């Protein structure tokens, strides 16, 4: 390795190292802010964010759904009743179900890409919002249900 | 200048009055409701409420006798079609009767028959003295695959003995897993073999299967509003554009872009037309078909979409055009003649932007069978005063359109099944 080559090599090494440090520190900073805001506000808030991202487009801001297309999440046994069945709706999706006496044309896609914690958070949010008053869902329940397959 | 305007308006006035002379007995008795049934119309127009509610209404047809047939999406007292009759000529329904025991969207009167569709079949009834004979049903198309998403069948009859049936795609964008983030678009999309288009059948042949039909046009995600334009001798329809660009591809589309994309498309369907779904969607800001992200698109690349058929007009996203009708009557002013009326059922997925639609639009047409100007709002106020955040906030949603023999137009509502009759005074 010539001197010129050596210095170029060192230069590249330094640049890579500093880029890596930059990336790592920014990733850590991001992680810090996220966990900070999570610990500051209860899980209902993160449940709301998940709801707004994945659920609201179809089930609407007030959980009332869309007539003939997407079912309501308000005042229905599907949400307020059996929590294991409800967890399955998120993990496996749902098709051709009757909700409060009406049928709905759109298929609920599987959301199994959400983590156990995220599923628990969004379901807890839904079970405690839009006038709903039902118990929280715990990540362990989601984990068990997911393991059943 | 003033003279010119005066003489033009006088001329228009004369032109619009002249045809009414031909049918003096009916229209002259009609009086619009003081509040036009809660909707707002252009100057000179009025509306009366024919019925306050027939059920969950879909499409509508009016017979030569003036009887009104409304299809329902949910049975009412065991019936899937409601017949409204006005016996004293004031425009209001005095007689309400049920007809047929199956629900569905499509209805058309022609060839001496009343045609009605369920999501899996098309039946017809012979018209006897202007009334369909319920005791003599004939099955024209049968055994169609039942599916929920975009499963409703809309109908159109041409003047050559054909029946056109819409086969919406049971999918949003032909992903391997429908509407699931990260799931790839299938290549080629197998749905297009049997769905995602319009099939042509023999309007007079019984018991046809899907395979007996001919795929007249393809590459269409979903159509609800479809009609045959007699003057042009062509088929026109409204396409519902795809959903969920931002939930499926947040790195490419933010929520606002997803609310504004893609276009709802006004289509002129020729034999063999291909409008590009699921590979393409229409972007009205770039005024072209764009490669869908499921197929490698990046919001700008056209790729295979460059050669696909274009809409004759593009509307804002997600407004849900559910009915299309060309006006052939003589009651309305001349500018409406041969122009198109469109029911925009109203959006539910434009959050965080305001929801849109929930009105009836008018599009003026030239002799060439293409729009001759921009669309205008014809009837609005269906949803009620407050801002619509969720579809359930809407008091009424315009769903079906039909023209009466005297040139009035009828509008149905899908929430309670209110029926308006719009007249020009």
TrEMBL record, chain A:
The Swiss-Prot or TrEMBL record annotates one GO molecular function as: metal ion binding
Keyword Cytoplasm set for record: no
Q: Where are the transmembrane segments?
A: none
The protein's matches in SUPFAM superfamilies, at most eight in alphabetical order, are given as: Cytochrome c
Residues covered by the Cytochrome c domain: 42-130
Q: Which UniProt keywords apply?
A: Heme, Iron, Metal-binding
Q: Which PANTHER family match?
A: ALCOHOL DEHYDROGENASE CYTOCHROME C SUBUNIT, BLL4482 PROTEIN-RELATED
Q: Which organism is it from?
A: Arcicella aurantiaca
Q: Which Pfam families match?
A: Cytochrom_C (PF00034)
**Record-given protein name:** Cbb3-type cytochrome c oxidase subunit III
Cited InterPro entries: Cyt_c-like_dom, Cyt_c-like_dom_sf, Cytochrome_c-type_DH
Automatic annotation (TrEMBL), chain B:
Recorded hits in Pfam families, A to Z, give: TrAA12
- Enumerate the InterPro entries for this protein: 6-blade_b-propeller_TolB-like, Beta-prop_PDH, Quinoprot_gluc/sorb_DH_b-prop
Q: Where are the transmembrane segments?
A: none
Describe the location of the Pyrroloquinoline quinone-dependent pyranose dehydrogenase beta-propeller domain by residue ranges: 41-422
**What protein does this entry describe?**
Glucose/arabinose dehydrogenase
| Organism annotation | Arcicella aurantiaca
